[in-house]
Amino acid sequence: MSHNTFGHLFRVTTWGESHGPALGCVVDGCPPGIRFTLADLQAWLDKRKPGQSRFVTQRREDDLVKVLSGVMLDEDGETMITTGTPVSMMIENTDQRSKDYGEIAKRYRPGHADYTYDVKYGIRDYRGGGRSSARETAARVAAGGLARKVVPGLTVRAALVQIGKHKINRANWDWAQVNENPFFAPDPEIVPVWEEYLDGIRKAGSSIGAVVEVIAEGVPAGIGAPIYAKLDQDIASNLMSINAVKGVEIGNGFGAAEITGEENADEMRMGNDGQPIFLSNHAGGILGGISTGQPVVARFAIKPTSSILTERRSIDSDGNNVDVRTKGRHDPCVGIRAVPIGEAMVACTIADHYLRDRGQTGRLK
Amino acid sequence: MSHNTFGHLFRVTTWGESHGPALGCVVDGCPPGIRFTLADLQAWLDKRKPGQSRFVTQRREDDLVKVLSGVMLDEDGETMITTGTPVSMMIENTDQRSKDYGEIAKRYRPGHADYTYDVKYGIRDYRGGGRSSARETAARVAAGGLARKVVPGLTVRAALVQIGKHKINRANWDWAQVNENPFFAPDPEIVPVWEEYLDGIRKAGSSIGAVVEVIAEGVPAGIGAPIYAKLDQDIASNLMSINAVKGVEIGNGFGAAEITGEENADEMRMGNDGQPIFLSNHAGGILGGISTGQPVVARFAIKPTSSILTERRSIDSDGNNVDVRTKGRHDPCVGIRAVPIGEAMVACTIADHYLRDRGQTGRLK
Amino acid sequence: MSHNTFGHLFRVTTWGESHGPALGCVVDGCPPGIRFTLADLQAWLDKRKPGQSRFVTQRREDDLVKVLSGVMLDEDGETMITTGTPVSMMIENTDQRSKDYGEIAKRYRPGHADYTYDVKYGIRDYRGGGRSSARETAARVAAGGLARKVVPGLTVRAALVQIGKHKINRANWDWAQVNENPFFAPDPEIVPVWEEYLDGIRKAGSSIGAVVEVIAEGVPAGIGAPIYAKLDQDIASNLMSINAVKGVEIGNGFGAAEITGEENADEMRMGNDGQPIFLSNHAGGILGGISTGQPVVARFAIKPTSSILTERRSIDSDGNNVDVRTKGRHDPCVGIRAVPIGEAMVACTIADHYLRDRGQTGRLK
Amino acid sequence: MSHNTFGHLFRVTTWGESHGPALGCVVDGCPPGIRFTLADLQAWLDKRKPGQSRFVTQRREDDLVKVLSGVMLDEDGETMITTGTPVSMMIENTDQRSKDYGEIAKRYRPGHADYTYDVKYGIRDYRGGGRSSARETAARVAAGGLARKVVPGLTVRAALVQIGKHKINRANWDWAQVNENPFFAPDPEIVPVWEEYLDGIRKAGSSIGAVVEVIAEGVPAGIGAPIYAKLDQDIASNLMSINAVKGVEIGNGFGAAEITGEENADEMRMGNDGQPIFLSNHAGGILGGISTGQPVVARFAIKPTSSILTERRSIDSDGNNVDVRTKGRHDPCVGIRAVPIGEAMVACTIADHYLRDRGQTGRLK
Predict the structure, then answer these.
(1) Where does NADP(+) bind (chains A, B, C, D) (predicted)?
(2) What does the alpha-carbon distance between residue A310 and residue A326 come to, in Å, rounded to a whole number?
(3) What is the pLDDT of residue C337?
(4) Pair type for strands A11-16 and A5-6
(5) What CA–CA distances, in Å, run from C305 to A236, A338, C105, C335?
(6) CA distance C149 to chain B (A)
(7) Residue B127: predicted pLDDT
């Protein structure tokens, strides 16, 4: 597939830079008859948008999404119904301070894509990171909002499970807590720990990495495909496409390297309702690339924001040694805002596979 | 892209089951003029083939690769030269003991794809796992042999770095050791530890997970592509497509979650030769989805072989509760034979991106 | 490839309906460093836009194109330079008279896509034909403007060669005439004939078919690809995707059915400059799916506009027999405005193959 | 899509040269549970194979197809059942007379792909045309045999309707005649005319073009897709990919250019069974790229075989002027054997769209 598109039947193409007039996406392949309101989509965008707490960038963007095509308005004047044609969505950029970036037009910020874009393209939109800015992910979140409606009964949720070395206590997991704190933490006891820790990071102009866990429930058994469109493979691919992600795992993930076949096996029994039951979910809901019907569980690691106040050694595009410190408004922990993005990418992946399987096997409704 | 194909310009389509007459692949998009011998390819297949030590499956397959199209013989009668048309390669299955599998025709082996294939397709080739068998990876290794020739100066090597909880000592890393022991271990000191540990696993009819690290050197700076064909994304996707892989990471990977922006930054300086130098490689050779010119570093976790002798609870396709123990010839640690497979997948990914970038930017030779 | 996208490395995704707020396209894979102005693009859009003579629809649309991403402004404040990231272009719809279409919301206009959209999707944007409107082609023309800049030395021109049974005299062919008459006719002698004929068609509320010929000069020899991405195949595919096109031919086309191998052969000789010369071009510049270096010649047939004033028998979506006559502002011969669209599709196809071949063989600069 | 693959969900990848050991295809995406026998497939291959009358090449190939993967044998030991995994099919080349081709290793035969392959790839398998040989189409015919089973109730038939200037009388059309003469002619009265005409061509060592018409019945209404995967577009693309095809048309095709909107309209009425009826089929069963439920009608023009005995002027790969006459065993009219190939390509296209639509809209069973 090409370079700014993902998906095979539910296809998302995104466009736009940090400091252009707008960014957006085209969702091609959305089935007809899907009903949604702008408010439905906006809710997910609001979850991702900057400026919502002192722990994320103070850039102010309303991130209001517009739908430009692919829908008809229902008689209530509010509900949109997809017609099966491409859904084009656009988000205007409003808070661009291009001046902030002038001095780094030629300097390669360590950890950023500045150097590699220049090597690859020979030209680079340096304003706010241009295309490599995480602003691009706003479009994904809009697409994810649609994707959630495609698969009947699907729920995709994510939470932050680690900041630096501070991990949640999984015994405390409570979905109801996730939207009650600025970290999307499912464990209320970790919140004060993270607050204190991140305040220190933020005041030092530093940054820190994190881990997000995404759980999709209601995924029908039997979607995904051998061999090169495994459901876990496409989830890994799509999560790894998120800015700053350096690792992805499914189910037990890297933990699976440390255990035996006996420990890792998910045993089965027939349930009282005549349906198969898995007695555990080490596999993260996927076997042989195909969903088992259990929750699909994925985690991804986000590196610390590369924009930090401490000077780092670097070079510029003229071949001079320079020292770079990145001012401006940055996330001390980009992992926080990655939570709704991870959800969106998993939702899109599942919607895509659902449509493929309905086509190929005709077994899904 | 579709389901048994990967790559965009260097495209590999594989086919075949564990117990059919043969398996193979079609490599479409291999540039013309690539020179190789059958022995070149066979060397990689030999590295992957079963029966080479007591730590891998005792199935006996010669895994001899034939080239059926896409090449002309040079005057030496041995060197093949690609013509730019599809290279079809075939490996015949010779040691099929279908009888071994009769009793599991209807039983879902925990951790295997038996249940999910049945749910998805309503029919399943149960012999040796059918299409979900790791035998399919022989075709990938053949394709990888070609891919290595596509990018001038490319070297792709891998090693096993962890079995169960036993990790190598990275200070001992010595590539010369990797082919000197049955584990592809780069650390000679870990070899006796793993031998003893795996002998125990094997004798117990158990199995254990592992971690493989792949390092690609000679990757030109500037290949890869935002946003949905990032080099790390495609590597993650292709490694995750290998049987039993449950996690993938690039550079610092999940370790990046635990460190600060200062620690994670790869600083740069101009070298004495006027070329940029990175002072570290936390990024694993990729920034913003594009190669930096440093070694590309990826790791993947393989779960323990699901085929174990201990009885596990399961069900059969008629909806009965059954207990399953998997006899037959199995790898106590499939991670070992995943080493050449991981190399092949990374080589194919890099070859594909190299061709794409040569097309799109015209900057590569 | 998916449904609203064409191209493999130079990929164009279009979106938008006749009566939505806007329509547009995302051009993904445009090489970096391409320089153009909005005026460059607008010139092609102006050629396609409605209302320019009495022989085309009187709908009034300025069809002003905006570029939303993928470029940086040069210091002159006018020249745009592509950065290699997706170029998003948008054209706002301004002259929508949705009232015109109210009465056909449920009636299937013969020859239109009304019935088939309803059968396929179960919902249909009836306003102006929705997605099936030829307004969508404005986005293609914008993309074509970019494509023309991708291949050094490429010129793509088209002309109308037939309206109804009235064909041009090819001996009169003069490219300089094409923009001097409202038909894009290369033969000045046909102009009064067509004027009189089309006036009659127009006044009768009728419509008539036409044939367009596209000629691309400066196509490097050696682009295109066996077997399923032949250059002629992709040209045929992309021309056939234009609304109302019912036939496509390359070089001699259907005429090749009537002649012998001797007549059809394009003989060759070495030229005085040491370059091969073809002594004729029956093949239309393509052999075995690959360009010969001669002009690429394609023709396509456009059916008469289906919107006519005469009543036709039809049904409505409730299953009633109805009679339909289509009022509103329609082209008596849509073939006229198909001229710049055909050019755009051929330009995009050639740009795409040029990039593919540069990648795959490394032989193009 | 890539270069030796076509289709999006029903994907066919072919490989092989005229004079290699074998050729074949991989059909990826064939639904599970399709039942067929080797004899089912072989029947189509037999229709295409050489040597069946004096009007086709005297090369002797049995063209026996083997199925290497993707199926299980039913209990009758003969019926194959697809499992949903890739179906690999292989046809061995048996009658290769490479000596025949030695003298043209360096000479570019006019009308053949010799020159363009050399320009593109810099290397060329000259034996029998290598990859550009029509032998490749045997693999398509095998794939088509499977495709026919995918869509319930589908019938795809083709006939030769024109050789040189000699056209059939459509009033005589009788499908029962098609397999009763060596031309696949549906009009028995044309048979003696063509026999006499082609005998003359053959004895002169000349060749002649032809037109094939393909008709698909039982295509469900509502398959196909705007805008760049129109059913007619994909049919045009796939037919144009057949060797020597220079033109494709749907329904009225180029004839649509000559008629008015009134004449071209396919009127509708409700039938007595409550189903819509079209009163004519000028559209060839497709409106707006989507099937109407009427027969899909396509025609394609095949140029005269380029291999002729008369000397033609050409050059060789060393840049010398040479004269070329092509000995060997050639078809005086390749259009004859294109009949089953055209059927196969249309069957594959419809199967692919059927699966896509089942996925995207869920409206097909």
Answers:
(1) 48, 54
(2) 8
(3) 95
(4) antiparallel
(5) 49, 51, 19, 9
(6) 14
(7) 87
The residue with tokens 């595009």 is A317
Contact criterion met (CB below 8 Å) for C356 and C348: no
Within 8 A by CB and 6+ apart from A271, the residues are A277
For residue A358, list chain D residues with Cβ-Cβ distance below 8 A: 358-359, 362
Mean pLDDT score, B246-259: 98
Residues B146 and B156: beta-carbon distance below 8 Å: no
Q: Report the distance separating Cα D127 and Cα B35, nearest Å.
A: 20
Q: Which of these, D11, C259, C139, lies nearest to A68 by C-alpha position?
A: C139
Using CA atoms, how far apart are residues C38 and C32, in angstroms rounded to an integer?
A: 17
**pLDDT number for residue C58:** 77
Provide the whole-model pTM.
0.97
| Chains in contact with A, where contact requires at least 3 CB pairs less than 8 Å apart | B, C, D
Q: Which residues partner with C157 through β-bridges?
A: C215
CB contact under 8 A, D290 and C227: no
Of B31, B357, B360, the CB nearest to C360: B31
Among residues A342, A73, A312, the alpha carbon closest in space to that of A206 is found at A312
B63-89, pLDDT tens digit by residue? 999 999 999 999 999 999 999 999 999
Map C340-362 to HEC letters: HHHHHHHHHHHHHHHHHHHHHHC
Give the ranges where chain D is alpha helix by DSSP (H). 38-48, 114-121, 137-150, 190-203, 231-240, 261-264, 338-361
Bin B182: left if φ > 0, else alpha if -120 < ψ < 50, else beta: alpha
Closest partner residue to A247 among B8, B254, B266, by Cβ?
B254
Single out the residue of C40, C30, C13, C14 nearest to residue C150, CA to CA: C30
Q: Output the CA angle A198-A202-A207, nearest 5 degrees.
A: 80
Distances D63 to C12, C17, C142, D141, D299 between C-alpha atoms, Å: 41, 50, 48, 11, 26
Instruction: Give the amino acid at A295.
Output: P
Q: For B306-321, what is the mean pLDDT?
A: 94
**What DSSP state is assigned to residue C253?**
G
3-class secondary structure, C267: coil
Provide CB contacts within 8 A for C279, sequence distance 6+: C266, C267, C268, C269, D313
Query: Would you list the DSSP string of B246-303?
Result: EEEEETTGGGGGGSBHHHH---EEE-TTS-EEES--TTTTEETTEE-SSPEEEEEEEP
pLDDT of residue D167 exceeding 80:
yes
State whether D2 and B87 contact (CB < 8 Å). no
From chain A, the residues in CB contact with C88 under 8 A are: 15-16, 22, 24
Three-class secondary structure of residue A43 per DSSP: helix
Cα–Cα distances (Å) from A255 to A236, A251, C26, in that order, read 16, 9, 42
* pLDDT at site C295: 98
Predicted confidence pLDDT, tens digits, chain A (365 residues): 458 999 999 999 999 999 899 999 999 999 999 999 999 999 999 998 877 888 888 777 789 999 999 999 999 999 999 999 999 999 999 876 655 566 778 999 999 999 999 999 999 998 888 999 999 999 999 999 999 999 999 999 999 999 999 999 999 999 999 999 999 999 999 999 999 999 999 999 999 999 999 999 999 999 998 899 999 999 999 999 999 999 999 999 999 999 999 999 999 999 999 999 999 999 999 999 999 999 999 999 999 999 899 999 999 999 999 999 887 778 899 999 999 999 999 999 999 999 999 999 988 87
**Amino acid sitting at position C156:** V
What is this model's ipTM?
0.96
Strand ranges for chain D from DSSP E: 5-6, 11-16, 22-28, 35-36, 65-67, 71-73, 80-82, 87-92, 155-163, 166-167, 210-217, 245-250, 268-270, 276-278, 286-287, 290-291, 296-302, 312-315, 321-324
